[in-house]
Amino acid sequence: MDLISDRGNRVAVEELNTSRLLKNARKQADKLRLDDMLVVDVDSHHYEFEHLDEVLPFFENEVFKQLVLAGRSKGRGSLLPSQTSFQDMGGRITRYPMRSSEKTDKGGKHRDIQLGSRWMDALSVDYACLFPTQMLHVGLTTMPEVENNLCWAYNRWLTEKILPGSDGRFYSMLCLPFSDPDESLRQVEKFGDRKGVGGFCITAIRTLPVHHNSYMKVYRAIEERGLSLSFHSGTNSGEPIFKSLNRFATVHALGFPWYAMLHMSNWVTNGIGERFPKMPVIWIEAGLAWIPFLMQRLDHEYMLRTSEYPGLKKLPSDYMRDMFYSSQPMEVTDMIQLESTFRMINAETQLMYASDYPHWDFDVPGKIYDLPFLSEKARHSILGGNAARMFKLAPRNEKQRANLQRFGNLAA
Amino acid sequence: MTETFVAKTDSLKDGERMIVAVGDREIGVFRHRGKFYAYSNTCLHSGGPACEGLIIAKVFEQILPDKTSAGLFFSDDDTHFVCPWHGYEYNIETGACAGDPKQKLRSFPLVVKDAGIYVVT
Description:
The structure holds two protein chains of two kinds.
Chain A: E1 2-4, E2 10-12, H1 18-21, H2 23-32, E3 40-45, H3 52-55, H4 62-73, H5 111-123, E4 127-131, H6 144-162, E5 170-175, H7 181-191, E6 197-203, H8 216-224, E7 228-232, H9 248-269, H10 272-275, E8 281-284, H11 290-304, H12 316-322, E9 324-326, H13 335-344, H14 347-350, E10 351-352, H15 366-369, H16 376-391, H17 398-406
Parallel strand pairs in A: 3-4, 4-5, 5-6, 6-7, 7-8, 8-9, 9-10
Antiparallel strand pairs in A: 1-2
Helix pairs in contact in A: 6-7, 7-8, 9-11, 11-12
Chain B: E1 3-8, E2 17-22, E3 25-32, E4 35-40, E5 55-63, E6 69-82, E7 89-91, E8 110-113, E9 116-120
Antiparallel strand pairs in B: 1-9, 2-3, 3-4, 5-6, 6-7, 8-9
């Protein structure tokens, strides 16, 4: 297959096959004997809009279904606001332009399951939490009915058509239609008990106040079911404060931690952790470097202006340490700083490996495994043990069972 | 010192690359502007197949004497190959990483003889 290079030149590259693309990851996994450890990826993705024909029938509202169907059939419609985005860096990340050409068994399992199995096997990932891609921007729609219908349809499609075909290796934290608290609650009640549902996700590219009273019933319903809540961050080139950023790289660098810091600040300041102490909260795909900054910043304000934090019984950083973090994209250019971050967040119990595959800045498990300052227990717990405890994931072989038991992570 | 056959010289055209296995190691061999270059096919960043992705001119920004930017351009002189996993770019003539030239992919000597290209390991 040819890819477009500079000045219209074309460069021949080998046909995309995920297993082949990731052959070096498989070699790393063999060298590190990762198959002996339970590896859980708490943040992976698929491209759900490539299967919109399968999702659309689950729209509840016929008017919006028709809008989407008629618009896309003529190439006129846009389900969600569009973004300026060059995730693939002009084709440099070859799996983007070549994605649709990858061959799968047409008579076999769903294409997304087949592709998922390929990268999971290559990375030695035993279980992966599957998130959408385009729908991470669902909070940018100005039409709450679209958000409600899309989340409902996707959540039905995912739990009825996709997850059941993965032999339990994929699970998910379902997207909440967060613009509508009542609808969010309805979807928690409808889908919360389904197989493969580990919790719910607030797609964080939005500026709604997560501490608003109208959301308490949603959090309560999630906590009562023993489920987790995640904030999945992202980029938004349309965010007013980012409008001067002239490179996708800077939109990406700032966007993910920005939305995480916004929601974390409101979450902690308003004492939501005190109100729902049994609900695990996971902060996903914002990296780690922002956490020490915000811990120090909020602690400083809290000590001087305690009257503005009446719901708190301890430092903001203590509440942040109660929460969980996904590891990707892990900033590694200053190893001393990274080690300090691990200490500040109690990484051994609070950090969970994430690949973000197939997105452009994915991390292989070796990125955690090779960290020079980790204990053996921390390595096992971060790569899979912490997620195994949270999501009650069983070992897939006897060596994994022994390792989970050895480090106190056997939960299923 | 082992010489491993890569390809007939006329089968590797300018602008193309081949990946050869030498023992348990993979090496990318490029033909660029009439010369041959060979590098380890393992990216310094995360171990991806560094030599298997896009080959594309370096991007540079032209800064004018008054310090204003005239915009982004493709270089006429420098060509990069890009690791397809995450986009780490390497200079095709030196193997130096574009983001940090102190980092270099391991290079391998090549011998051209009898109309064939051989990589020396």
